[in-house]
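Morning run. Coffee first, then this:
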Amino acid sequence: MFLDAAAVIAGVTIAKAQAAAFESDSQCTKRDAVMKIRAVISLPDSQMVSEARDLAQNSSELYLFNHVMRSWIFGALLAEKDGSKPDPELLAVSALLHDLGLTDTYMTNDNRFEVDGANAARSFLQTYGLSPIDVQLVWDAISLHSTRSIALHKGPVVSFCHSGVQVDVSGNRYDAIEPSLMEQILQAYPRLSFKENLTNCLCGIVRRKPTTTFDNFMHDFGERFVSGYQAVSSVDRLNDAPFES
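And here it is:
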């Protein structure tokens, strides 16, 4: 059986056209969703925020970029719902850059990933004329974004950066987001197998620099998923201290 060349070419052309149409429809759907989100919540779009968004997008895999975008939106929505007024730009930058420490570009071999991200954000902010206090605030928000027992007792930038992240990671305060708005957020920034991808990413860090995971939530991933992982116990540290009592 021989295929007619013209038919093959026509078929390829149709397939390309259908793919282009699908991509165009997807872009339109995302654009519409973003517009609906912005109609509900005012999100800053200054040069600093725009460039922070670009940095996150250029440094991260798409699933991770979508996560930081959702985290930003969730944090801003919760702040508004709670009647709090964190600095919108500092909250935006904190949320957008909070996972830079999970990327190859900014990951070191000896820091917790949260510290790597906070250090990267601090370097990013040097050219924007922020006060040292504001730069430190962003550093604190990022370094503490996974430490709920502390973050919730800090100021609104830190606490709502954490809270926005936790909506997306653990579903904490999920019900505080209107279902129709949640649908638009997920349409604009889909999860893309977020649970599986984040688990794989965190396990990679556990393997690469296990000593940074012993005193925080990362050891849960090590114990469950990483063969041979053994965290150093705080009890052992106390008992092994070089004192008689």
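The two ends are 88 Å apart (CA to CA). Good start to the day.
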